[in-house]
Each structure stands twice: as C-alpha cells, then as structure tokens.
Amino acid sequence: MKKYLRHPVIQNALALYSVQFFEYVLPMLTMPYLARVLHPAGWGLVVYAQNFAGWLVLVLEYGFGFSATREIAQRRDHPGECAEVAAGVAGAEILLLVPAVLMALTARFTAPEFREHPGYLWLALLVALAQGVRPFWYFQGLESMRFPALLNVGGRCFYTIGIFLFVASPETAWVVLLLQGSAAAIVTSIIFGAMYRKVAFEWPSPRAAAAALKMGWTIFLSRSAVSLYALANTFILGFFVNSTQVAYYGGAERVVLIVAAMTGPFLQALYPRMSHLALRDRASAAQTARLSLLVSVAGGLVLTGGVFAGAPLIVRVLFGPSYTPAIVVLRIASLVVPLVAASNIMGMQWMLPLGMDHMFNRVVVTAGLLNLFLATLLSYRFGPMGTAWAVVASQSTVTLGMWMSLQRSRRGFWHGEGTAEGVPQPEGQA
C-alpha cells in the first residue's frame, strides 16, 4: 500500500484532490452567506464580474495547462530546455494580455453592469490576471504538485476568511473581488518564485512566444469550444423559458459539474505521466491508458448511479422544495459523467500526449457546434429537459467521435502499442 501511495501520480492526484475539495467546499460555505448579506443585486453583480473574469482567464491560460505541461514532462531531465519553455510561455502570456485588455475595454462600454459599476470590471481584470498566468503547468509537468496545491488551498482559505471578516453589506460587495484577486496574486507570485528557483530566468523572445502560442493553439481552440457550449446552454435556454425554469437547469448543471470534476484531479495528475511515457515507452503508456479507462468509467458509472438515485434528496437539500422540477433534469444531466470520463482518457490522456491535437480538436469543435444546434432545437421544444438531453447527445458525440477516430487511424491504446502493427503513423493517416 505504501508503495502505491509513494507513486508520483497518486501523490499528485491526492494534492490536486485537496485543491478540488477546497474549491468546492469553501464556496459552499460562502455562497449562502453572500447571497443573504449582499442581497440579490449585490450578489448578482459579484457573480457577473466573476463570470467575466472566467472568460479572461480562459484567454490568458490559453492551452498551456496541457501543451506546456506536456513539454515540461518530456524535457524534465533537461533544465535548460525547461527554461526555454518557461520563457516562451511568459512571452505568449504578455501577448495574450492584449486581447484580454481589449475584451475588458469593450465590456466597459457595452455591458450595462460595467457601464454603471466600472470598478467591478477592473477588479474582474485583476482576478483574471492573477489567476490566468499562474504557472501550475510547470509543476504538473514535473509531477510535483504538492507545494503549489497546498499554497492554492492557503489562498482559498485566506479569501474565505476575508469574506466573513470584511463583507457585511451590499456596499462591500466589491471587497469579494478584491480579496479574490489579492489572494490569487500572492499565490501566483510565490509559485513563480518557486519555478524560477528551479530553472534559470530567460527573457522571452518573439520567436519563443510565437512557438508557445502555436504549441497551445489547438488546445485553446478545443477548450474554447467546450467552454462555449458549456456557457451557451443556459443563455440559449433563456430565450425560450422564464428565469424559474432556467434555474432548474442551472442548479442541475452545477451539481453535475461538481460530480464530474471528482475524476478531474486523477486525470490531471496522470497527464504528465502519459506525456512522459508516450515518447519513451509506448507499450506502458497504452497499458496505463487501458487501466485508467476502466477505473474512470467504472467510477463515473457509480457516481451517475448515486446522483440518479439520490436526485430527490440532492435537490431538496441543496436547492429546496421549490426546485422539485430539477430532479428529472439532474437525472438526465448525470448521464454525461461516465461519458466525460471516457472521452478524457481517449482525448486528454492519449491523443494529446501523442500529439494528435488536430484529431482531438476536430471532434470537440464538431460536438460544440452540434450542441449549439441541439440546445436551440430541444430547449425550444422541451425546455430544461431538452437542454439536458442536448448536453448528453453532444458529450456522446465527443466520446464516440474520439473512439472512431482512434479506431480508423489504428492509433488507439487497444491496438497493441497504439499504432498500426506497432509502427507510428503521422496524425490523420488511416
């Protein structure tokens, strides 16, 4: 048992699970408090700003959580090459500040909430900058996530305690964003310092920055596609139903996101190991992928069964008796959990480490476009239940599309070492 607990993947998974635990438990403590203290208007403004910050974080993080992690994992024994990767990512993030700031300026003059409360916009930009440039990817690539994970937990605790100490009325709603941005800035600064104690600092060059952007482009595009349909569904539903029915879907969606995220830290910790093995021991990588697929899908089925059976209790405890119609929506939406687990193994843990970014991207973007069509059609006809079925259909398309792509190219981990007759093939070649 001790042998398995000392394994880098297990240790990093445990570290990431600690982060995941606090990421969901602490908001469960603060959300009821903020909703009551700030009242709907103040709380809504904070949520609005935080959601906008999330869009900016998506731009600044780009695809480095996977592309840079992969590069560090493959070069971990060569500090000089790791320093080059870090310099390239730093240069790319400087360039990405331009679209992020332009988005903020556009929102300043177009979004009604930010026109009336511009201070919230600039605080949202602070939050995005502090969180978006955090170099977690370096420590993930080294499979050394315990220190940054604990540091991140400390920042979350600081933020949570600050809310209870300094936020006491709607007039202090802006303090929530200030605390969030300040805590994130402190954590990010310390993590940068820890990284540059391990690798030499190099000034980023335009060439290295362009290479980093090119390296992460397909991941960014796929993340944008996923994020687009994840965020668009509630928006589309709002065209056809009232806000009460939107709440039924939104509540169910949040529960499913939390449940699906339970397998996230394990997969996140596994990614650098798969990236490392992909170049050095393809047979071991394929064996690890097969075992991971079995474990994650089995876990996903158990979680779905639990949510399906416990939906009435979950809705009553978390949202109250007035949300009873959300029970059936939650049961439908829970079907995506094992599908997400399977697609994560085939996509994130196999296609990306082997450099099949374009194949991966085609599947995800296609599913994203399908989701937009189905969400519009089914939301109009069936309301929240239709939206939930659109998500299930889209995620099924992702999972089936990845399996078919790997099967046609004979590069799946069930084909010997993941290639046709053991011979590597260029991406896209059948």
Walk me through this protein's architecture.
- The structure is a single chain.
- It contains 18 helices and no strands.
- The chain is mainly alpha-helical.
- The chain has two domains: 1-204, no CATH class; 219-410, no CATH class.
- The longest helix has 37 residues, at 282-318.
- Mean pLDDT is 80; it is low at 417-430.
Q: Topology, pairings included?
A:
Blueprint: H1 2-5, H2 8-37, H3 39-61, H4 64-75, H5 79-110, H6 112-116, H7 118-132, H8 136-141, H9 146-166, H10 173-198, H11 206-237, H12 243-260, H13 264-280, H14 282-318, H15 326-333, H16 336-351, H17 357-382, H18 384-409
Helix pairs in contact: 2-3, 2-9, 2-13, 3-5, 3-7, 3-10, 4-5, 4-11, 4-13, 5-7, 5-11, 7-10, 9-10, 11-17, 12-14, 12-15, 12-18, 13-14, 13-16, 14-15, 14-16, 15-18, 16-18, 17-18
Notable features of this structure?
430 residues; 2 domains; globular; mainly alpha; 18 helices
Provide a quick synopsis of the model:
With 430 residues, this protein is an all-alpha fold. It is built from 18 helices and no strands. It has helices spanning 2-5, 8-37, 39-61, 64-75, 79-110, 112-116, 118-132, 136-141, 146-166, 173-198, 206-237, 243-260, 264-280, 282-318, 326-333, 336-351, 357-382, 384-409.
